Structure to design on (139 residues):
């Protein structure tokens, strides 16, 4: 290999090493989703817009419950796309059961707006909803 080829190879190897050095910490970082942890626990009423269905009531111990409304009680891999002080977006994949992408915007610790879409058991879903805390959970 001539000098130009060796130099090009070294530059390429250096660029790849730098790329790996800077991308490794980012891929290993976990997002905190603090905004969801700041929502009040209790009974929440979920009203899906334009559905004509009655409001659904949920007992929510943690705001993270809103991420997988169409895949409840399923263990899914999650990727945090946005993690801001008043809005989060999370993509998730549930092996063999589908996937989804949910954005949650906090208006107060007792009121959030939710947009979600994905696939559940082979069928698509998409909804926009408002969730409001309405009281304590009954045991």
């Amino acid at each position: 290999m001539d000098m130009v080829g060796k130099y090009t190879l070294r530059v390429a190897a250096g660029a790849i090493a730098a790329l790996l050095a800077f991308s490794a910490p980012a891929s290993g970082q976990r997002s905190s989703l603090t905004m969801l942890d700041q929502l009040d626990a209790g009974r929440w009423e979920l009203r899906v817009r334009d559905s004509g269905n009655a409001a659904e009531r949920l007992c929510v111990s943690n705001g993270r419950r809103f991420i997988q409304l169409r895949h409840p009680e399923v263990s899914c891999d999650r990727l945090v796309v946005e993690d801001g002080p008043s809005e989060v977006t999370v993509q998730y994949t549930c092996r063999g059961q589908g996937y989804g992408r949910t954005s949650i915007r906090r208006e107060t610790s007792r009121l959030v707006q939710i947009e979600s879409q994905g696939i559940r058991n082979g069928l698509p879903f998409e909804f926009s909803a408002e969730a409001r805390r309405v009281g304590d959970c009954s045991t």
Summary: Residues 36 and 63 are 4 Å apart (CA to CA).
